[in-house]
Amino acid sequence: MVVAMFDYMSRPHSTMSDMVTIGHKDIRTGEMTSQVDMPMFGLGVYLMKGPGECKKAVSHAIECGYRLIDTAMAYGNESEVGEAIRDSEVPRDEIFVVTKLRRPHATGYDEVIRRCQESLDNLGIGKIDLYLVHAPPEDLEARSPVWRAMEDCLERGWVRSIGVSNYGSHHLQQMKSYARIMPAVNQIEINPWLQRPKLVAATKEVGAIPMAYSPLARGHKVSDSNLIEVASMLNCTPAQAAIKWCIDSGAITIPKSSNRDRIEENFHSQDIDLTPVKEYFQSMDENYVSGWDPTVEP
Q1: Which letter does DSSP use for residue 294 in this model?
Q2: pTM of the prediction?
Q3: Residue range 201-229: average pLDDT?
Q4: 104 φ, ψ to 5°?
Q5: Contact 103, 135 (CB under 8 A)
Q6: 46 is catalytic
Q7: Is residue 101 packed enough to be buried (19+ CB in 10 Å), middle (13-18) or exposed (0-12)?
Q8: How far apart are CA 189 and CA 193, in angstroms?
Q9: CB 92: neighbour CB atoms within 10 A?
Q10: Model confidence pLDDT, tens digit, residues 120-158
């Protein structure tokens, strides 16, 4: 079946992503604190390690209207993200930057403080908008001091919000025993083939917003027959349909690409109306994990 490309010129399109308010639930009072607005859609820069690759991708994305960039110290490209933002004509306060504490660095309080400062230096753009623990610390005893340091990074004004990534429901529940505030975001793999309703519900229960990485299952499912059929009905690409499903599910969504055309294609996924095909997506869930999955670890 041939899928028609989305006709960008025939309908109005986004100039900026919708926003969602993220914040932290105070364990003592249950109230939401430190609230900030975050775009629902952005660019992921995982595996962009070639010289200049990340900077060019981020620069083009910002030109196209992206206002959320998701990086990590583990990606080795924080500096290029910062360079692209500094070189942009868009004001710094209009671009939301996410970075993450490497799992091997999530070993104790002092290490978190040191690594946060290192990410601040790498980026060179002032405070970090959202700082995430990349995965649950492997040492169970380290989880409390690591999160305490994250809370202190927030209180010191180095970051505007804090959260976690790859945390399962049990990890989130365990946090209630040692956290002062709960995470604002839980970044996990979510896509039409890995819909994770229980983990999404557990994320929302602690006051966090789900954030979807690998919305295309790392490209493994772009040729899925159901997705191709949906895309044909919508006159869009399969990738656009999958990305828009993630957004419509309520997850902040960050497809990764360094290809200029793909960056533009992904951005315009926000304009697609999935209303006529919602039932197709309900049958796609098969608990397909395309990458690593620390959510199931102890």
Answers
A1: G
A2: 0.94
A3: 96
A4: -65, -15
A5: yes
A6: no
A7: buried
A8: 10
A9: 13
A10: 999 999 999 999 999 999 999 999 999 999 999 999 999
Q: How far is CA 170 from CA 24, 137, 154, 185, in A?
A: 18, 14, 24, 16
Question: Hey, what are 87's tokens?
Answer: 């070189």
What angle, 0 to 180 degrees and rounded to 10, lies between the N-to-C axes of helices 238-248 and 260-267? 50
* Domains of the chain, each with CATH number or no CATH: 8-290 (3.20.20.100)
Compute the distance between CA of residue 274 and CA of residue 75 in angstroms, rounded to an integer: 33
Which residue, chain included where needed, has tokens 């790498």?
Answer: 122
Q: Pick the closest to residue 148 from 162, 129, 169, 167 (CA basis).
A: 162
DSSP letter at 256 equals B
Active-site residue identified among 75, 131, 167, 213: 75
Closest CA to 133 of 121, 145, 146: 146
Report the alpha-carbon distance of residue 99 to residue 130 in Å, rounded.
7
Of 19, 139, 20, 122, residue with least CA distance to 80: 122
Query: Torsion-angle region of residue 250: left (phi > 0), alpha (psi -120 to 50) or beta?
Result: left
C-alpha of 246 from chain center: 11
